[in-house]
From TrEMBL:
SUPFAM superfamilies: F-box domain
Organism of origin: Crucibulum laeve
Organism lineage string: Eukaryota, Fungi, Dikarya, Basidiomycota, Agaricomycotina
Tree of life domain: Eukaryota
Protein's UniProt name: F-box domain-containing protein
Length: 378
C-alpha cells in the first residue's frame, strides 16, 4: 500500500464529515486511517433521554476497549424538560444515572446543555458534571432552566477555563438581580453570545458582563424581547476600561417600525467608550417587513454615534436585514430588493458609506424556495 502522510489522510477524511457510513469504512482501511476517522466520527456526541441511547452510552463508556473518551471533543447533553414541561420521574432518574458516569470524558472542550433543568439535578450530579468538565473552553445553554441568576452564574464560574459562553432562551424560575460576584476570580471569558434575554434578567446579565468585562472581546446581543432602559452598557468602569473589545453583534427580531427597532441598538452603542480602541467590527441584525426595505428610518442617532472618535478604527459595519416574502406579494426579484436595501443604507448610514466600511447581508425567506442570501459591499 502506498504511504500517505498523516496530514493528507486528515484532509481526505475531512471531506467526508457528514458521511458516517463512508467514514466507518475508511476506518477499516488501515491503522493509519483509524485515528483520523474516529476523531471525525466521535467529535460530537448527542445524548438523548431514551432507554436505548442511555444503555448504549453506558455500555460504550464502561467497556475496557472503548476509545471514545480519547476522541470526543464536543458533548451535547439533551434533556426533555423545562419548568413549563417537567421531565417524567423515570426519565429523570435515568438521566442522572448517565450524568454521574461521564467522568471518563475529560477531553471534552465544548459542552452544551439543552432542555435541561439544572435545579432538578441532585447536588452530587451537579458536582460530578462540574468536576468532569471543569476545563472546558466553550459552554452553550439552550432552553436552559435555572432557579435564579446567582445560581446560574455560580455554575458558569465553576468552569474555570471557560472562554466562550452562549445563552439561548434561558429561563429563570425566580427573577432577580445577581447578588454580588459569584466567585473571587472569574473565568477569562472572551466571547459571549446572548440570545432572547427576557427583560427581568437584563439587569443580572449587565451585572455579569461588568464582572467579566476586562476579558471580553466579542459580544453578541440578539432576541425578540428587550428592556430598553436596561440595555445601555455605558457608565460601568469594568466595561468602559476594556481595551480588548473587538466586535459587537446586535440583533432585534421584532417586526415593528424601524425607530423602536433601532432604539436598543442606539443604547448599546452609546456604551462604547473611548477606551475601546480595538473595536473593529459592528454587526446590526434586523428582521423587517418587505415594505420597510426602502423606508428605513430612525437611523440618525446610530449614524451620529458612529461618527464619534471611539468608532474611528472600525473596519466593517455589517447590516443584516431579513424578511419573509408572503404568498401573493408581487415578486420584484432578489436584485431589486438588494438595490433598494443598498440605497436605503447609503442614506441611513452616510458616515459608514463615505468610509467604505458598510456591508449589506440580505436574507429573503421564500415560501416555495430555500433561503436566498445576498451579501455585497454598499
Amino acid at each position: 500500500m502506498m504511504f500517505l502522510p498523516p496530514e493528507i489522510i486528515d484532509d481526505v477524511l475531512s471531506q467526508l464529515y457528514a458521511d458516517y457510513r463512508t467514514l466507518f469504512q475508511c476506518c477499516l482501511v488501515s491503522r493509519k486511517w483509524l485515528p483520523a476517522g474516529r476523531h471525525i466520527i466521535f467529535e460530537t456526541l448527542r445524548g438523548q433521554l431514551t432507554s436505548d441511547n442511555c444503555s448504549q452510552l453506558l455500555e460504550i463508556l464502561s467497556s475496557p476497549l472503548t476509545t471514545l473518551p480519547i476522541y470526543l471533543r464536543h458533548l451535547i447533553i439533551v434533556g426533555e424538560g423545562t419548568y413549563s414541561a417537567p421531565l417524567p420521574t423515570r426519565h429523570h432518574q435515568r438521566f442522572e444515572y448517565v450524568l454521574n458516569r461521564l467522568s471518563s470524558l475529560r477531553g471534552v472542550y465544548s459542552l452544551t446543555f439543552k432542555n435541561l433543568r439544572w435545579e432538578t439535578l441532585s447536588f452530587a450530579t451537579q458536582s460530578s458534571l462540574i468536576r468532569t468538565f471543569r476545563y472546558i473552553k466553550e459552554l452553550s445553554l439552550q432552553n436552559f432552566s435555572c432557579l435564579s441568576a446567582t445560581v446560574m452564574f455560580t455554575m458558569i464560574c465553576n468552569f474555570t477555563s471557560l472562554s466562550r459562553l452562549s445563552s439561548d432562551g434561558v429561563e429563570l424560575q425566580e427573577p432577580g438581580s445577581i447578588c454580588g460576584p459569584p466567585c473571587a476570580s472569574p473565568p477569562q471569558i472572551t466571547a459571549i453570545r446572548l440570545i432572547d434575554l427576557v427583560p427581568w434578567s437584563m439587569q443580572s446579565t449587565i451585572a455579569f458582563l461588568r464582572w467579566i468585562g476586562p476579558s471580553l472581546e466579542h459580544l453578541v446581543f440578539c432576541g425578540h424581547t428587550y428592556a430598553p432602559q436596561s440595555l445601555s452598557l455605558g457608565g460601568y468602569p469594568e466595561i468602559d476600561n476594556n481595551h480588548r473589545l473587538r466586535s459587537i453583534h446586535i440583533g432585534n427580531y421584532n417586526l415593528i417600525p424601524f425607530s423602536p427597532i433601532v432604539r436598543p441598538i442606539t443604547l448599546i452603542l452609546s456604551g462604547v467608550g473611548r477606551n475601546h480602541t480595538q473595536l473593529t467590527k459592528i454587526v446590526l441584525e434586523l428582521r423587517i417587513t418587505e415594505s420597510q426595505i426602502s423606508a428605513c428610518s430612525g437611523w440618525q442617532d446610530v449614524d451620529n454615534l458612529l461618527r464619534q472618535p471611539q468608532f474611528s478604527r472600525l473596519r466593517m459595519v455589517e447590516v443584516m436585514l431579513s424578511f419573509f416574502r408572503r404568498p401573493g406579494v408581487p415578486d420584484q426579484g432578489v436584485s431589486a430588493s438588494v438595490y433598494q436595501a443598498r440605497e436605503a443604507l447609503r442614506n441611513c448610514l452616510p458616515s459608514c458609506f463615505e468610509r467604505g466600511i458598510l456591508r449589506l447581508r440580505l436574507c429573503i425567506f421564500l415560501t416555495s424556495s430555500p433561503i436566498v442570501v445576498a451579501a455585497c459591499q454598499v
